[in-house]
DNA sequence: GTCCGGGTCT
DNA sequence: AGACCCGGAC
C-alpha cells in the first residue's frame, strides 16, 4: 500500500517542529490506549449504519454495482463531483523497471563470518543500489511534485488532511485514496467540525471507493470528534495520542508524525518494509537470528541500527522497490541491482511455494 | 471464478 | 483468528 505518492501531495512547508522524543513506547501506548484516552470509549459506536451492501451478491455483480453507485453519486444531498479516479489509475507498465540496464554499479561483497558485520558494512550500498533502481523506473511513489493540493491549505488544515487521508489509505491504492480526499475536500469535509456534523452513512458513501469504507467512516468521525474536543480542531501531535485514535495503528501513527508534523518518531513499517527488511537479513526477532514475524518486531529491530536520518526516507524507498522488483510473489531478482548483496536473492522459487499446501486442510 | 494481500480492531 | 473491502493475480 503505497502512501508516499498520496502524502507527497499534501506535503507541508518547511516550517516544522524539530523536537524529538523517545521513539520507543508504541507498544506500551497501545496497551494503555483506552486509559490514555477516555474519549475513545465514549465515542464508541454512537450510530449504527445499515447498508444495502449487506445483501449477498456475487463479487462481480457487487463490483459493478459499486462502480455504478460511484458514477451516480451526484444525487446525494451533499453535492459532489466524483473525482476522476480513472485519471489516477495506477499504470503498472510504467511502474515496472523497464530494462536490465537498471543494474547500478555493484559493490563487492566479501564474505564475513558475522552477519551483523556484513549488514553494517553493506546497508549503505544496499540503499544506494535501491535508489539507483528507483531512478531507472517509475514506481508510483516517484511521481512527486504534486504539492498543489496540499500546499494550498493552511498548516492546520493540511495536517488534518494528512490524518484523514492516512486513515483512509490503508489497503487502498493511493490514487483511490487521493480521489476520496478530493471528494471530501470538494464537499468541505476536510474539516473536523464538518465531519462531525455529517451523517456517518453519508460519509461512508463519499469515501466508498476506499477499502473498508464503513469502518473507516466510523473511525474518521471518531477521530474528528477527538480532534475537536481535545486538540482544538488540530490533530494530535504525539505518537501516543495518535495511536489512541481508533483506526490508527503503529504504521499510520509513525507516518503521520513524519508527514504531518515532520517529527519522525519511528520507522513506518508497512508490508513492503517488513518483507524486504527480512529478505535483506536486516532484522531479527529479539535475541535470535530468526526473521521477524510482525511489522512491529521489524520496526524495533530496524530502529536499533538504522541511522535516524534514514527512518523517514526508508519507507517510500522500499515501498517503490517492493512494488516493482522485490515483490511479495516472485521477486524479480534477475532485474535487481543488489542481488549480490541480498542473502535471499534467487532463493524464493519463482513458482508457487510451500504456500500451496495451505489450501484447505483443517 | 477464486483467492489473496494489507493495517487495524475485536 | 476472523472481519472488514477491493482490485488484481492466478
Care to describe what's here?
- The protein is 47% helix and 0% strand.
- With 362 residues, it is an all-alpha fold.
- It has helices at residues 4-8, 26-31, 33-36, 38-43, 59-72, 92-95, 115-136, 148-151, 155-169, 174-186, 192-196, 200-206, 213-231, 239-243, 250-259, 271-279, 295-303, 311-324.
- It contains 18 helices and no strands.
- The longest helix has 22 residues, at 115-136.
- Helix 9 (155-169) packs across helix 10 (174-186), helix 12 (200-206) packs across helix 13 and helix 16 packs across helix 17 (295-303).
- It binds a DNA duplex (10 and 10 nucleotides) through residues 1, 53, 58-60, 62-63, 66, 92, 170-173, 176, 209-216, 219, 246-252, 270-271, 295, 328-329, 352.
DSSP helix fraction: 40-55%
The Rg value, from CA coordinates, equals: 21 Å
Output the helix-strand order.
Answer: HHHHHHHHHHHHHHHHHH
Class from helix and strand fractions = mainly alpha
Amino acid at each position: 500500500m503505497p502512501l508516499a505518492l498520496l502524502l507527497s501531495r499534501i506535503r507541508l512547508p518547511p516550517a516544522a517542529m524539530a523536537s524529538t522524543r523517545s521513539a520507543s513506547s508504541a507498544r506500551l501506548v497501545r496497551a494503555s490506549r483506552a486509559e490514555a484516552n477516555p474519549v475513545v470509549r465514549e465515542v464508541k459506536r454512537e450510530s449504527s449504519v445499515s447498508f444495502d451492501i449487506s445483501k449477498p451478491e456475487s463479487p462481480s455483480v457487487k463490483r459493478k454495482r459499486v462502480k455504478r453507485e460511484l458514477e451516480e453519486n451526484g444525487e446525494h444531498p451533499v453535492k459532489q463531483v466524483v473525482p476522476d479516479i480513472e485519471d489516477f489509475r495506477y499504470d503498472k507498465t510504467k511502474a515496472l523497471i523497464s530494462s536490465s540496464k537498471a543494474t547500478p554499479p555493484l559493490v563487492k561483497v566479501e564474505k564475513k563470518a558475522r552477519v551483523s558485520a556484513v549488514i553494517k558494512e553493506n546497508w549503505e550500498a544496499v540503499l544506494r543500489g535501491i535508489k539507483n533502481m528507483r531512478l531507472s523506473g517509475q514506481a508510483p511513489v516517484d511521481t512527486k511534485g504534486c504539492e498543489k493540493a496540499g500546499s494550498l491549505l493552511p498548516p492546520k488544515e493540511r495536517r488534518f488532511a494528512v490524518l484523514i487521508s492516512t486513515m483512509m489509505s490503508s489497503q487502498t491504492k493511493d490514487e483511490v485514496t487521493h480521489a476520496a480526499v478530493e471528494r471530501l475536500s470538494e464537499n468541505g469535509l476536510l474539516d473536523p467540525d464538518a465531519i462531525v456534523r455529517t451523517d456517518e452513512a453519508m460519509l461512508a458513501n463519499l469515501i466508498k471507493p476506499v477499502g473498508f469504507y464503513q469502518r473507516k467512516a466510523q473511525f474518521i468521525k471518531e477521530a474528528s470528534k477527538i480532534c475537536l474536543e481535545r486538540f482544538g480542531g488540530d490533530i494530535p501531535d504525539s505518537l501516543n495520542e495518535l495511536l489512541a485514535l481508533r483506526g490508527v495503528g503503529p504504521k499510520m501513527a509513525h507516518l503521520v508524525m513524519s508527514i504531518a508534523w515532520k517529527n519522525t518518531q519511528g520507522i513506518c513499517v508497512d508490508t513492503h518494509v517488513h518483507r524486504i527488511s527480512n529478505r535483506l537479513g536486516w532484522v531479527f526477532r529479539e535475541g535470535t537470528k530468526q526473521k521477524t514475524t510482525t511489522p512491529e518486531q521489524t520496526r524495533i529491530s530496524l530502529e536499533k541500527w538504522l541511522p535516524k536520518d534514514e527512518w523517514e526516507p526508508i519507507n517510500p524507498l522500499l515501498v517503490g522497490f517492493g512494488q516493482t522488483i522485490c515483490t511479495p510473489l516472485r521477486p524479480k531478482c534477475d532485474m535487481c541491482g543488489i542481488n549480490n548483496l541480498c542473502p535471499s536473492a534467487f532463493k524464493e522459487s519463482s513458482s508457487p511455494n510451500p504456500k500451496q499446501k495451505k489450501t484447505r486442510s483443517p
